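@channel sequence for tomorrow's demo:
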Amino acid sequence: MKPYKEIFDKIETTLRKVSTLSETEFNSRFGEFKNITYKNMQDKDIFWILVYVTFYSGMNAAVVSQKLPAIKRHLYDFEKVKNYSEKEINRILKDSDVIHHRRKIKACIENAKEFDRLLRSYGSFREYLESFGPLSEEETIERLRADLRYRFQYLGERTVNHFLTDLGLNVLKPDTVICRIFSRLGLIDNEKNIVQAIEVGKEIAKATGYPIRYIDIIFVKYGQKGEDSYFGLKDGICLKENPKCVICGVKDYCDYYASKRE
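structure tokens (generated this afternoon):
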């Protein structure tokens, strides 16, 4: 059995040390991610998750994060977005603050139409989700994944899990940052093994008692490049290039660190 709890606790502790936030601020801002659930979300908020995971797909996360306010200004309300024409697409593309990706904007419009059809059939997105059965069971999640990928554009193998993670379901988003950290720690065979990464996420949740969404944000901020003032971080630690192994709290578990010392 891997020391999942010990690894997570050391990563969390290291983040606390390098963050400029006070203990209270750290607990408050990161703690927000312990209480995320689709049950408390309005349908428009769920559609917004569908929009932003579309833009994160295959793109630099730091760049997308900077552009989200502008993207939200144009694409948050599915009831408006579903009626967008080429005129609205061109208007959005003239906004210098958005990501100029016509295909993704068009995908959001098509997804808004499908989202609206789904709500007309089920009444709410919550009712749609729960129609698959107990969402704590893997078989239910598998059926839900397949249906989401069938219905919505840009929900690929990784992105559909990003969507489920941000709904507060027990599914880890196997993005490149998390997979890199897991691989370096020897928790998965390689950075491309997203199936293993999802399973490791469940094991960490089981070992720590924390919800997946909290585990996700801790690992992401541990390995994500760039400043994040909200979390009091000047940069991540387990970076793709020039990782800060000297201050890393889990270097004793790290295959990557061990190989560099040989």
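heads up for whoever presents: Residues 102-122 form the longest helix (21 residues).
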